[in-house]
Specification:
CATH topology of the domain at 17-29 and 36-121: Gyrase A, domain 2
Distance between the termini: 56 Å
Mean pLDDT: 89
Shape: rod-shaped
Number of helices: 3
Low-confidence stretches: none
Helix content: 40-55%
Number of strands: 6
Amino acid sequence: MTVTAPDGAATQQHVPNLELVSILTNDLPSSLCTEQAPATYCVPFVLSRRVTAEEKKALESVATREVLGRHGAGEVQLTVADRRLLVDNTSLEELAAGLSTVLADEIRRICDEIDATYTERAERARLAQSTEAERVGRVQDLASRVPLVTSERLP
């Protein structure tokens, strides 16, 4: 992934893939597997790392809800909380039936898209920096040809 430093320079930095790691089972409703179990509830996933601001925005976006809707999970709401992804209005059964794979695929797609955007920005910045360095070199070359002597001292 490319990261922009405080001075505006774009640098390559390895950021591990964002992935679903586990489910925080202690945070699931205590009534699961009983007759009083709710049909849907919040399932908290542990993520492999902290989420960037861009990733958070994309995960919580309308576009992601639309993707989930196309897979029959339009009521599901995603919320990022530090290293957790809270998946509201779902169930372990729905996740086991394929929704968790849809989530994992969407996380990967989002991260790939953000990474491609960063890479493109870094390449544009590198090109602009290279172009500017060439321009400065030409200016310095021209400036070095300017005689700084009186006409009597010219060859």
